[in-house]
Amino acid sequence: MHTITQPRTQTGFTLIELLIVIAIVGTLATIAVPRYIGYRERAAITACEQELAAAMTALVVEGADMEGDGDDLAERYHWSACDGSTVGYHPAKDDEPATLSAYASRFSDQEPDASEQLSEVSFGNEINADDV
Length: 132
Hints:
Elements lengths: L14 H47 L11 H4 L9 E5 L7 E6 L13 E7 L3 E3 L3
InterPro entries: N_methyl_site (IPR012902), Pilin-like (IPR045584)
Keywords: Membrane, Methylation, Transmembrane, Transmembrane helix
Subcellular location: Membrane
């Protein structure tokens, strides 16, 4: 008796198909990863700005004494969203309001300058948020 064998059906993926999928996934990853990192940094900056505004409100409401130089302000208050950033307080002088500023030392290894300022909140009789 003579048996007829059926032709083998093709199963699985070819090498070309796998390489195309790997190339597509790699392209998508090169687009998505930098954007994701940018979103995380902007979220940290926004959290820091909001915490600065809340801290200034709390300082004004409780009538905190701001006559000193403010060097110990970061130690006296908890800055959870601004950890690693440079937080500076500048007391009111003449017509200038007092300011509380955060600089992006968290995101840079160098000394902060005005271009790295995350946020500055100033207050006199009322609170004014420049960037918040």
